[in-house]
Each structure stands twice: as structure tokens, then as C-alpha cells.
Specification:
Rossmann fold; 2 domains; globular; homohexamer; 245 residues
Chain lengths: 245, 245, 245, 245, 245, 245
């Protein structure tokens, strides 16, 4: 089984870290194929960057020529999953949604701990659209941006633990989801300090991709995610326009 | 007052029709500045095209050099409003949301009549995110795509009237919103046959833009729609990459 | 365009202050016609007074003989809008609902800051019935009654700013609505201290009335707000009964 | 125990019929004191008439000089309960809410069958505000007005049975509430034809009033329903103004 | 009228205390028949014990040979009501649900104060399933287990008062429900300290049972609570298996 | 990895069929350990039987002496998952919830097709409690009981296809979940006729169990699902009482 793991930002080092996390939990026989988009932001902390990443990720996947069995979209709370589900036939898994699905198999409620306060609403909205908001106790922000979390893992762990503890004690969360692709790999360190299950979206999505593919299931094409209807396109794919990486 | 009216698709004729509708209701002293994106689809009937339009519209607005007092985003149910609110300081108005706001000033419930069945979910989601879903009785589809509705106004009117009547009689709607930017200009013909108020999103948005600007109000920059944080960008704006229109 | 601006309480000075606010934002050519009911409370801080005002306002409007293009009901959280929509053909705009509509065009969430704690539930209920509660972060009370807020504008500003700050910092509000007709005129002073948009219901309603009238739209008469069915009435209009002002 | 049973309309014959129903289920020692308001509509089929009744009922109760242990407000879906709870110390029971409470003790879901289609929204709103909407399968209209239902009991039974059957078979209701005070006394005839429990609001409210009074409980005065704050009133009580009945 | 009052736990002393509470509010002519299950836990503080009690209570009621007019299930937040409604023809009343129903007749919002934090979710879920969650301001825990509350009434009162005060002041509750069958009899002592109505589920259920029986109503058998379909059973009733008490 | 697969009913043939389905999708190295309870119903079509199964399943699992890595509870819409999560340390997966989780990874909405109409509410309630109801388009009944579905697979397929088609065409479902453990193994036959993904709960749960175990995660023990507090038990485990199978 080949899983295409798409980092939404242009930071190839972060792509590598995510791939390492993914490989650590992948079953024998599962190949992780990492992909970095050709344009966009090197870290994503707002709606503009998120929308840009949605298109950059679709552009990157459209121009990949190898077969794969599933796509994991590794932006936590980013846009784009619904569009990708139209472009490809194989299952598409969003890490925020997968974290929520796994969390709800483990506890009655869950919270997300993410980066900046401005991202809280975006994550709430993604969970709402995925039908996964009812048991979300809270989405909390550490106040550190994606790049900051990525740059200093120790500070990241400390900041996440602080907010996660409040989520458990004040908001009533029973499971914590790490709300940033850049936190991949820190779930054990964080969980060890908290005494509650900690779910990382990238690894959750890899395992759920294996489950769905193993069940022989694919995205429903009957309505919302049918292939694009073929309206005339100008400039697509965008990375063919010119000098993008 | 100058209102930038952005068509999400690349169809300049549709831009022109929208601008004509907008000018017909604009107050004296309001200038409508139409804008067509440089890349994307010439009609939008799926999530992929919608996400592409979100970025194309942000690209187009980013590269316009004239001052304006508000932006009207003329895609019904398309993505992107949250990103645009970060990129500009002036109020940003989405036509689906504006149609819903006006409809709820006129009746206890409203329905939307749109194009293809696959777009129903996308419109429901946009209304949900805008906090405007509670009094939405239904979103109904005519089964005609955006280009079809645009090409044959008589057929468009008939198809919309049929679904709107069901919305009123079966779903309990008291107001009808026209769920496609390409229906601009047909609201009176449709309303005359139905006996209920019919709201067109483009004209609603123009008038709400005047209202908000007239009140001296602007988008809140305290959290969700603060300016982008300045992460490094590759390839932005995209239309500078190469040969796009 | 003539807009009938109805104060729900019997305090003519407050009617005058509201009219001044309304005129300050009205477009050229819009005439504001203020109206004070003939019976009821001189300030409204409970359900009993609110219900009484609903009938007093309908009584007053029923007995006005001049033509007008819209009715603005200037009680924040008061009852009666649905009844007025049955009695008149022109659009009817409630200031609490209009404040919420405008707020949601400016930010992802909003809070209301009002008078007494006992009014919080009434405002929540009005927003709920209007389908505008989903993005309401909170309704907060200053602890000052309507008359107190009206009597001491400086104290009113300070008390509102204190609660509004908590709404932004604790509840996650991005826009503040002033939850009392008597706060009309203080929105700029309050907004200047907060750094978030502040919406006054009276001015919002005037501008939305202009928008709706400008669109050529009227209240839907197909169901909920059809004219009264003509059941026999005793004692209506009430102000004809006797010695009321 | 004395229960004040207030008919919201001015039709004394309907007051008498309600009182007869109430007495038929009242426990030994419970006295039913019927009351008809001095002004308003002789049947209530719209919001205007409903608001008028809310004030007329408060006026009537305010001017009754005998002691009572509870107030039953016998308008199904009418306004006013919150105001009455401020004016009196004893428990106040609304018949629509009481029907819903009892229905939910008997089945997983319930529907209401009422008069005109225009009243459906008003009843939905009242149930929503009372926190009783979640298990409401539907509110259905017979198309007959209050006066029509009252005038022809056989036609009323047939019309209610037809809609109730649809509520059970199509909407999944397990209990039916009779959505009009004028249907009091027909619950057994209707229930016999349907095979599901049929709840009449007047009798339900009388029995719930006995239950609450028997428990020694009264309306909470800590916040929403505290006594009116004493703002100056003009013209209250209204029936003292002049020639009202 | 004979009301079967079933304690879900095996603690006969607690059954006796509940029966005493019930008798104190029962109307003349109402006989309270207490019942203790033959197996299960002697106090219930978790889902395992709660599920066990559901079956033990059904077992006990199935093997009672005397006629009764209603069943009161005296576990606050315990499972089983839906099953019991299938097994018997008479009305079945759950004390948590009955407390919520009565509370909502007395105030706009209510809170529950219960035992351990782990029971909060179970009570929220029961209220949700009963359609009674919308006006629930909060469910708060004292941190004392069922047995502890039962053993030391003074400590129980103090702990409940502390949380109830927070429910009123912080969460906005207007009525308090005592969230544990073992608190029966303490409602007056607690209410006296709080100034808000305090509802005990056991007494509320007894009075509601009288109301429903007095109305001549029974559980709807049309769908969810029809008699069991007669699938073959092994080992039922369980208490016939062997040496249970 | 060893997965304990617990059939809630006493029908060992159905346990065998479920185990065969489970093994067909299990990964290499995953052992399926089937378990049949010692008491209860041989098919489950009501709340009484469901509650009984919850306790019978906990009884059976409590008395199994071999180690396992996860428990799959194979009753669709049955009670008990929360209790099992307290009794064991390993992850516990309910097939109704797992079907919903997988379905939502594949389409925007899903419907469940189940057995008798009386079970619709029970399934809706289970999905509601699991936080998985928001995107559930409908739960539809074939009208065939569990034993009937099990006895005649061809009739089962035809009946499920008929309701599933209505779910897709009328209710807007994009994925179908088979709402009965007894339908295990028919998903492919049904999916082939419908053109939408069909999810079987047993196989979904097995694959999700592998995913969760593979991620090294376990049930949160911080609150709702902590081990039972140790209240004294009478008669537990129940199957030790006497002559049960």
C-alpha cells in the first residue's frame, strides 16, 4: 500500500519530519510517499495561507505521476479536503478530522491544542464541517506559531502540556489532539506528562488510511465528491505557469 | 463609495452581467468596479473549482491598485471570504451570506435554490460557517449547471420557480434566495411568479456593503481576520508566475 | 425614504436621542420619523415591560396616519417584531437582530453587552428566534439598568468597555453589539477604547432598512407574517380606551 | 388549592369549555377559577393577536383580587408566560409547554397538531424557548382556525386525526399534543382513533400545576423572573383606561 | 394509586429513605411501594454499575406480582428507563428526567449538582436523550460518591450548596436539581440556603407520576416502547438463576 | 494482536458469521477471538434485550481469562460500550460508532439501514451519544427483524437495497452503513447494486481496532471511563449464579 503524505506548506524539512512520524506507525508493507507543494507559505497560520495551501496541494497531487492508495493531507485545520476528494479516486484523509475520529474512540470528549489563537476558529470550523464538533470540549491555543513550534520542540512540549492540562481540568477533555502537523513526533513526550491519551493527526491519518484501504472502500462519488464537471480551466495546473520551484 | 465586485469565475461576460445588476441597485455615488480573476474555471460547480477560485480571487484583488471601500465576493457558496478578510482592510461581503442576512429580515425562514445537487452541501456548509443556517428551510437544486443557467434565462427562471415553489409549499420557506451569481437580474421575474420575496445575492451584497461602509465599520482585526502573519511565501501572487491571462 | 423609528418606552427624551443617532447615519433623502408609545414603561428592564411595549408600539404605529417605507423597532431584546410584521406591509427591523446581522458581516463571532443580568436571557432568546445565535459568543450585563445607562453616559461607557473587554478576551468575541437602545451614540467612544468594531443597533437598523427598501423588498406575507385573520377585537386600539397620554 | 385558568381570548364560552375540561381532571380539593381578559381578540390566530393577549392576560390577572396557588395560561403557543412569571409569585404554567412535558414522559418523540399553518412557527418558537424542541417530531396544521375548530367538534376531530396520523407514520411521532386550547375535551375521541397517547394542554397544565404546588415549589426569582424593577408606568393596568368590557 | 418506587442499588436503607421522601409528598390515596433489586451494586457511581442496575431493576420489577399504576426509577442518571417502558404498560418515570421537567416549569435554566465528576457525563447524556438538555446550564460534581453523600447529610448539604452557588452565580442557573437519589430529603435544607428552588428527583417523579396517571395516560406503545418482540431468552429473569439475595 | 469480538446475542451461529467477516478483513497477525454471552436474547430488537445484552457482554468479557488487545462490541445500536470501557484497559469499539466513523471518511453524509422501525430511535441515540449524529442523513428500517435478516440473506439484501436507495435519493446520503451485526458479509453484494460505499460495522471496527492499537493508544481513564470505584457488588458476575449456559 502506498500512502501519499502531503505537507501543505513549502517547508521540506517539515515534510521530512512528518514522513518519519508516519513511517514509525505504518504497518509492514505500507510505503509513505511524502510530497511538498511547489508554491505557498512555508508555515500556515491564517486563512489566506490555508486557502493557498489547498490549491498548492491539489496542484502538487495532480502533477504526481505515481500510483497511490490513499492521500493524507497533513495540515491541521487547513482547507482543501473536499476538493482533493473530487480530484482523486482513492480515499483522502485530513489529519484534523482523523485526530478527532481516533480521539472519540478513546474518550467521551476531546480537546485540540494548537498554535495561535487566530487558528482556533479555523479548527473549530473544520471539525464542525466534518461532523466532529459535538464532543469537542475545546480548541486551545499555545500562542506559538507553526514555525516556532517546529523550531523548539522542548518549548513546544511545555506550551502544549500547559494548555492540555487546562483542557482536561477546566474544559473536561478526556483525550488531547495535537493541533499542528509540526507537532508530529511529540505525542509520546506530551502524553507521558498528562496521563491522558494524546493523538497526533499524522499518525492517526496513516493508520485510518490503512484501515479504509484495507476495507476496500473508496470516496463516495455519488454527489458532493464526484469528479469535477469539466468546466473550462485557465492556468491549471498553476505550477506549470512558470518559475515555481 | 467604490465597491470592488469580484466574479469568482473567469467568464468576463458573467462579470459584466453581475456588474449591471449591481449598478441597478447601487445608491447614487456608489461606483461598482468589476473584476475577473486571471486563472480558474469559467463556471464553478464543484469544490475543486471553488477552492481554485478562492485563490484566484485573492490573487486578483491583491494585484488591483485602485482604492475601494468594500469587496463583494460574487460566488454563491464559494470558498475564500475568510482569506480575503485578512488581505484587505475594508469590509468583505459574500453573496450567499448576504442573501441569507437579507432574507431573514423579510421572513421567518428562507430557502436557497441553486444549480446542481452536488452544490447543495457546499452552500449548506457556507451558511453553517456564517452562522446563518438555523432558519434555512432547505437548499434545493434545479439540476442545471452554472453555465446552463447563464445560457438560457427562460429555462433558468422556470427551473428555479419549480424548486422555489416546493421550498415554499413543502419545506416551509417564506423567502427565496437565488443560489447562483449567474441568476443575477432574474429575481424580479422569479418573484413575480411566486408571491414571496426573492433575494439575489449580488444586489443584496451591494446594498449591505453600502450599509456597513455607511456605518463607518470595518472587519474586526482582533483575531480570526488579522493580517497574515508574514510567513515566507513562494510564488505569490500566482498570476505573476507566467502566462496567465 | 421615510423610516418610522419607534422607541418602545414612553421616554420622549430617549426617543429624541435615538432619532439623533439615526439621522447621523441616514443617507441623504432618508427621513427619520420618531414615535413614542402612548402607554407602557419609561424604561424597559423585564419581560412584563417588554410585552407591554410590544403592544404599545403596535398601538402607536396603528394610529399613525402618515406613509413610511420601513419601521425600525428600537428596543434591544424587546418583544413584538413578529406582530408588527403582520400589521404593516413595509419591512420591520428589530435593532437587536440588525446589530447581530451587521456584526456577523465584520467578524467571526460577536458578543452583546447589555444592562441588567435579568435581560441576558431575553436577548439570547430574541437572537435564537431570529436565527442569529450560533455565532454569538456571549451576552454580558453591565449591571446598570436602562435608565441608569441613559442618565450617565460616562459611567455607561466605562461599564460597557469593561464587559466588552471580557467578551473579547475571555469569550472570544470579535465584534461588540451595544445591547440597549439607550446606548445609541456611544458606539464610537466605546469602539475607540476596545480596538474592535462596535455596532449600535439603532444605526445598524436604519442602514439595513435603507438597504432592504433600496432592494425593493418587503416582508413575506405567505405564512407567518400574513395580515391578521380578522378575528373580532375588543378594545383595539388600546390608546383609544381613554385617558392615555 | 386554587388554580387560576386564564383563557387568552375574549370568548367567554371557550373559557367555560376549558374550565369544564380542567375540572374533569382536577384532584379533589382543587378549585378551578376561570378568567377571561377584558380586551383582545375572540380567537387567536396570529402574532399580533397573541401579543395583545399576553398583555390582556397580565392585565386581567393583575386586577383579580382573590388568592390562588398557580396560574395556567391556556393559549397554545401564545406569548406572555415570562411576563406573568414576573408579576405573580405562584407557579405559572403554559399549556403548550405542559403538553410537551407530559408527552415526553410517555414517548420518545411527540408532534403537535394545531390550527392554521401560520401558527406552526409560533408554536415551534415557544417550544424552542422552553427547551422542549429537541424531541418534537413536527408541528402540523389542520388548516382550520381557532374559531372553526371550536365551532364544529366533529370536523375538528377528523382534521386533527388526519394530521396526527401523518405525524405518527411520516414524522415518527409517538405521542400527539393537541395544539389549541379550543380542542380541550376532544383528546379522548382523538386518542381512541389513533392508538397513541393524546395530550391536551389544559388538562396537562392543571395536573402539572397540582404537582408543582404539591412539591411546595415556586418560580425562581433569582434572575429572569424577578419582580418588575419598578420603572414608571403609564396607563397600567390598561383595562382601567376606559370603556373596556 | 400505587406507585412502584425502585431503588437501582441494593442498599435497602437507601430504599427506605427514598420511600419516606416519596410518602412525604404523595397525595392522599397514593401508596408508595418500595423495591430493592436482588443483585447489583450497593451504590452506583459508574457506567458498569449503572448498566447492571438497569437489568437488576427490570429483573426486580418483572418478578413483582402486585398491581401498580406507575413505576418511578430512582437512579439519577442511571440507564434503563427505555427498557422498563417496554416491559410494563404503566407510565415509567426516571428521576433525573422528572427533576429536569419540574425545574423548567420554575425557571429559565437549571443546573444539576451530583456526586463524582465521572458521573457528570452520564447525567448530561441522560438529559440529552430525554430532550431536556437545551436549558441545562451545567451539571456540577461535589466530588463525593453516592455512599459518602448518603452517610453524612451535613457534609452533603454543604458540598451541594457550594456547587449550587457556583451554578447560579457562574453558570446562570435559576433552579437546582439534586443529582443523586441519596440526596432525597435534603432539598429543603439546601433550598433554604440558596434562595432558588431546589428540586429533588424522587419527589418530583412521584408527583409527575400522579399527574400522568391522573390524566389517564400511558406509555406510547406504537414504536420505541412496544412490548419486547419475543426473541428467545436464556437465563431470564436473572435472579432465578441461583443464590442471589 | 488479539481482538475479542463479542456478539451481544446468544446465537452462536451469528457469532461465527461475524467472526468469519472479521477474519476476512483482519491484517496478517491479527487473531479474532469470538465470544458469545451466557445469557440474554438470541436476537436483539428492543431496549430490554439491548440492556440485557450489555450486562451479558460485560459478564462474558469479565470471565474470559485470555489476554487481548481490543474489544469489538458487535451489536449495532446496543447499549454497553461505556461500561465495558471501565472494565477493561484495552480499547473498546462499538460497531455502530465505527461504521459511522468510517462512513464519514468517505462521504459528506451517511445513512444507516437497520432492522425494525422501533430500532431507529435506539440507533439515532447511540450515534448522538457518540457525537456522530451531525452528518447522519437518516436511519431507515427495512421492517425485518434481526433473526429474519439473518435467516434469508437474499431477502435481506433486497430490503436493504430498497431503503438504501431512498436514503441516497431522498435523504441525501452518500454512504450507507449496514445497521445490524447480522448483515455482516453482505456489504459487497449491497454496494454493488447501489454505487455508493457500503460500510459494515463489524469489519470497520476490526480495522479501527487495529489502527488504534497500532498507534499505541488506549481508553482514557482520567474521568468517564476510569475503573469502577469498588462499590460492593451482589451477584456479580451474574453467570456464576447458577445454571446459565
Amino acid at each position: 500500500m502506498r500512502i501519499l503524505l502531503v505537507n501543505p506548506n513549502t517547508n521540506a524539512a517539515m515534510t521530512g519530519a512528518m514522513a518519519a512520524s508516519a513511517r514509525a506507525v505504518a504497518s509492514p508493507g505500507t510505503e509513505i510517499v511524502p510530497l511538498t507543494p511547489r508554491f505557498g507559505a512555508d508555515a500556515i497560520d491564517c486563512n489566506f495561507e490555508s486557502y493557498l495551501s489547498a490549491v498548492a496541494v491539489m496542484d502538487a497531487v495532480s502533477t504526481v505521476d505515481t500510483g497511490f492508495d490513499a492521500v493524507v493531507m497533513a495540515g491541521f485545520g487547513e482547507h482543501g479536503r473536499e476538493g482533493m476528494q473530487e480530484l482523486v479516486d482513492v480515499p483522502v484523509l485530513d489529519i484534523a478530522e482523523c485526530a478527532a475520529h481516533v480521539a472519540q474512540l478513546l474518550g467521551r470528549t476531546y480537546s485540540v491544542v494548537t498554535t495561535l489563537r487566530r487558528s482556533v476558529g479555523a479548527i473549530e470550523d473544520r471539525l464542525l464541517l466534518a461532523g466532529q464538533r459535538a464532543r469537542c470540549a475545546s480548541v486551545r491555543a499555545t500562542g506559538l506559531g507553526t514555525a516556532e513550534l517546529d523550531a523548539d520542540p522542548d518549548a513546544a512540549v511545555a506550551a502544549v502540556v500547559e494548555q492540555a492540562r487546562l483542557a482536561v481540568e477546566v474544559d473536561g477533555a478526556e483525550v488531547i489532539c495535537l493541533g499542528c502537523g509540526g507537532l508530529a513526533g511529540l505525542d509520546e513526550a506530551i502524553g507521558a506528562r498528562l496521563g491522558v491519551p494524546v493523538v497526533d493527526g499524522v499518525t492517526a491519518a496513516v493508520r485510518l488510511a490503512e484501515a479504509v484501504v484495507g476495507l476496500g472502500l473508496r470516496t463516495s462519488k455519488v454527489c458532493s465528491y464526484a469528479p469535477p464537471p469539466g468546466n473550462a480551466l485557465t492556468g491549471w495546473p498553476l505550477s506549470h505557469l512558470g518559475g515555481a520551484r
